[in-house]
Predict the structure.
Amino acid sequence: MIQSDLIVRATEDAGEVEISGTVDALLTWADVLIRDDAEITTGRGADPAPYARSLAGVRVRTTPHGLVEISFDEEAQALIFTGSRESMEVLGQNVRGLCQEGVPGEHLHIEYFPDHFYLAESRIALVVARVD
């Protein structure tokens, strides 16, 4: 288990989730995406606004095949990423791109659309935000 300064906040129905953090925290998450059975516990900010709640962590489960599925574990209050190492690597590259080419305050929207090349269908719209 990895302790991180990432902040993970969600709407009440977890239809939109934001993962925000420093470049270092986001890069650590990008690296974790290609590990099997990894878990990051996150900081829970005092006020999740403009979202309804803060989540406790992020879990990663790699599979032999498959696109990245983003789901929500209500009991654990965690965001779950499940998919092949290859698909997870593409997601990680997008996060790394935000860290390397983005500027503080910039964010990235990661959402499923039909025939998406690395994301499986999911009701969760993900926003990744760089804070430094």
About this structure: Residues 2-130 form a domain with the Gyrase A; domain 2 fold (CATH 3.30.1360). The first strand starts at residue 2 and ends at 10.
